[in-house]
Structures are given as structure tokens and as C-alpha cells.
Amino acid sequence: MSEVDQLPAVKQGHWFSGGVTACSVRIVRHHILLGTHDPDDPPELAEDKPTECYYIRYHSPGVNGAWHDGGMALSVREAMFMAERKLGPVVQWQE
Q: Where exactly are the structural domains of the chain?
């Protein structure tokens, strides 16, 4: 389980796999933009950077053990848009 998975959600809801199966989705705020840690990548991509950012985490249908990585954004609004693009047109966010 990653450090990002332990952070509280700033936005959460459900997406519908196949249009029917409700699965959890959440957006968490973090203070570090995680790098790739790949030695073949340039330093600006490979190294972690201190900055406010938002990570998208979601469960897939079936056993909901681990959170899956849905990407990273620099604002909540951008993270919501990215989640909706990745997970389908129907994401229901809680108020």
C-alpha cells in the first residue's frame, strides 16, 4: 500500500464499470509530485518535486483490495476531469 493511498480524500464518489457495477474513486491531495525514479529518464521527470498536487485513486470491479493509479493533476478540477476521461462518462461525485 502506498503513502498516497493513506491520504484522506478531498473528493470521492463512484464510477460505473460497464455502466452497472459501482466502484469507488477518490482524489487525494499530496505535497510531493512523485517522479518516475527511472534512471533513464531526465532528472526533471525522474526525481520527486515538492508541490501541491492531486492523485486519482480508484477500485476496479470485483475484489476491492488495492487502489489503482488513475493519474496526477495540479488541481482538483483537472483531477476530476482526468478521472471522468479514464473511468467513463458516468462518475458520481459526492458533495
A: 4-90
Binning pLDDT at 50, 70 and 90, where does residue 1 land?
Answer: very low
Model pTM above 0.85? yes
Q: Which residue has the cell 500500500?
A: 1
Residue 46 CB: number of other CB atoms within 10 A?
Answer: 13
Q: pLDDT (tens digit, 9 = 90+) per residue, 40-59?
A: 999 989 998 999 999 999 99
Q: Please compute, for residue 12, the number of CA atoms within 13 A of its CA located in the half-sphere on the CB side.
A: 14
How is 30-71 classified by DSSP, letter by letter? EEEE-----TTS-HHHHS-EEEEEEEEEEPPSS---SPEEEE
